[in-house]
Amino acid sequence: MEEQRAHWSSSTGFVLAATGSAIGLGNLWKFPFITWENNGGAFVLVYLLCIAAVGLPIMMAELLIGRKTQKSVVGALKEAVGPAWGIVGLWGVLCGFILLSYYTVIAGWSLFYFTQTAGWTLGGVPEGLAIGDLFGQQVANSPLQFGLSLLFSVATVSVVYFGVQRGIERIARLFLPVLFGILVLLLVSALGMSGSGEALAFIFRPSFSELEPEGVLEALGHSFFTLSLGMGAMVTYGSYISRSQSIVKASAMIVLLDTVIALIASIIMFSVIFSVAGMAEQVGGSTVGMLFISLPELFYNEVPFGTVLGPLFYVLVALAALTSTMSLLEVVTSYVIDEHGVQRQIATIACGATVFIFTIFAAISFGNVPFFSTLALFDGKTGWFETADHFVSNWMLPTGGLAVTLAAGWFMTRQSTESELVDGTEPRWFRYGAWRLFIRFVAPLAVTAIIVAVFFFGADFS
Ligand code: TRP
């Protein structure tokens, strides 16, 4: 007898799990940085537009393909569109695999900073320690990187091991409220700082003369990454939704929460940065700079209650990362379970261990390791880590996203998508015709623009 497929225990459980997947390093690490690079205001507005016009329709498309077929990404695309589409599903699994392999390394850094900051809070910052230099030292320390990412991988595997309800959903239910709570604490503290007004103006006052055309594409590319789209994660999570839940309402909620959190994270970071004289000029240069170089120092020297908020902040980063890594591993694991009939526990451990081999490659990328720290496949990207990030963000997610829009908009029948989205549970504002217009025309055209920019003009969104 075939075993019954696992389902989320409730609509809230599902929304929390999917929101947990969406909220991650993309919100805390990437978004504030690219907003900074692109001069705020206008970029944020364009980003919001991309989220609404491209991200939201694709979110609905992925979830509906999952719910309709009740299969993980490979099986789902095969069933919903046709056998040849299994390849697209495999592309998604591969993407999840690679993304997980280096995402875990960054997650490991948050563990390192948590232990460091907690140590400083309890025992004081060691005399003469240059906090800003710490990042370069820890990242070049390959044994340390190995240990940190191993720890994080074990945590991820331990969650996915217990399955959809007892693993993923339970951790999301437990951690997301904690994450929101920490974020609110940080926000309150940040708003009390002298730079908060300037930060809010920077984020919310658009000045279009400061936005470059590449910024538009960067906003679009990031909307894929931050919503966990373009690689079947939402197809997989959608396959555990029961028929009675509304895809439209859930999608809107997930997208809204993800966006709000990204904005709050930016308000927090920019308030701190604008409050310190000369800091605004120093920040930048690298994506990691803000989160792991500027902020730790500021927590200990500038932020009110920073000695408590500092460690809490890194707990926040670690929790956000974990709710994302578990969904990445779930994409790979559920493929092995569904398509190869492997038992969940065995599949989880096998997939986790295989991914970890590649995590090691990413973890040692910043040390002095031949090949892994010198690999130069793409212009300006050195080492395994940067190469993987570049490949996923620029090539894999946009092509995967385009495939989803084509599948849902052009290859599936109108009737089959309409019956999933319009089922009496959808909210009143929803118009099927509008969704169809976006998924058939707006989204594919926008994504094609990214692909053209990457292929022909060497654009870089990683
Ligand atoms: N959305 C995650 C973030 O913002 C990153 C991510 C991209 C992801 N694709 C994913 C997470 C797929 C889980 C599954 O950090």
Can you list the ligands bound to this structure? Answer: tryptophan
Average residue-wise pLDDT: 92
In what range is the share of β-strand residues? under 5%
Could you say which structural class the secondary elements and strand pairing correspond to? Answer: mainly alpha
Radius of gyration (CA) equals 21 Å
Count of helix runs: 19
Assigned CATH class: Mainly Alpha
Number of strands: 0
List keywords for this structure.
77% helix, globular, mainly alpha, Amino acid/polyamine transporter I, binds tryptophan, 0% strand, 462 residues, single chain
Please sum up the structure shown.
By secondary structure, this protein is mainly α. It has helices at residues 11-22, 25-37, 41-69, 73-80, 86-123, 131-140, 142-161, 163-191, 196-204, 213-226, 233-238, 247-275, 279-282, 287-301, 306-340, 344-363, 383-411, 414-421, 432-457. It has one domain (11-457): Amino acid/polyamine transporter I (Up-down Bundle).
Account of the protein in words:
The protein is an all-alpha fold. It has one domain (11-457): Amino acid/polyamine transporter I, CATH 1.20.1740. The chain has helices at residues 11-22, 25-37, 41-69, 73-80, 86-123, 131-140, 142-161, 163-191, 196-204, 213-226, 233-238, 247-275, 279-282, 287-301, 306-340, 344-363, 383-411, 414-421, 432-457. It is globular. The mean pLDDT is 92. The protein binds tryptophan. Residues 21-22, 24-27, 99, 225-226, 228, 231, 233, 324, 327-328 line the site of tryptophan (TRP). Tryptophan (TRP) binds next to helix 1, helix 2, helix 10 and helix 15.
